[in-house]
Amino acid sequence: MAKNSPAEFLNQVRAEARKIVWPTGSETVRTTIMVLIMTVILCFFFLGIDSVFQFIVSWLTSLAR
């Protein structure tokens, strides 16, 4: 692979940076809300799973007494 000069490298970086398409403000807000909703849903899901496993372990340890 051929090495580029630092100036050529910076030109390539600028050219690639011009291709970036940033999300609009409304897209950012919409995505943030979706992430928060999924976080809450997963929080309750893992709380439920953890509670079930806690009950099972408590029940099994009570049998050993």
TrEMBL record:
Record carries keyword Membrane: yes
Keywords, ordered alphabetically: Cell membrane, Membrane, Protein transport, Translocation, Transmembrane, Transmembrane helix, Transport
Topology in the lipid bilayer: Single-pass membrane protein
Alphabetical list of InterPro entries matching this protein: SecE_bac (IPR005807), SecE_sf (IPR038379), Translocase_SecE/Sec61-g (IPR001901)
Any Pfam family hit: SecE
Membrane found in the keyword field: yes
Compartments where located: Cell membrane; Membrane
UniProt xrefs under PROSITE patterns: SECE_SEC61G
Residue ranges crossing the lipid bilayer per the database entry: 33-60
A Gene Ontology molecular function term of the record: protein transmembrane transporter activity
Biological processes, Gene Ontology terms: intracellular protein transmembrane transport; protein secretion; protein targeting; protein transport by the Sec complex
GO cellular component: plasma membrane
Family named by the database record: Belongs to the SecE/SEC61-gamma family.
General function of this protein: Essential subunit of the Sec protein translocation channel SecYEG. Clamps together the 2 halves of SecY. May contact the channel plug during translocation.
Known partners and oligomeric status: Component of the Sec protein translocase complex. Heterotrimer consisting of SecY, SecE and SecG subunits. The heterotrimers can form oligomers, although 1 heterotrimer is thought to be able to translocate proteins. Interacts with the ribosome. Interacts with SecDF, and other proteins may be involved. Interacts with SecA.
Protein name from the UniProt record: Protein translocase subunit SecE
Native source species: Sphingopyxis granuli
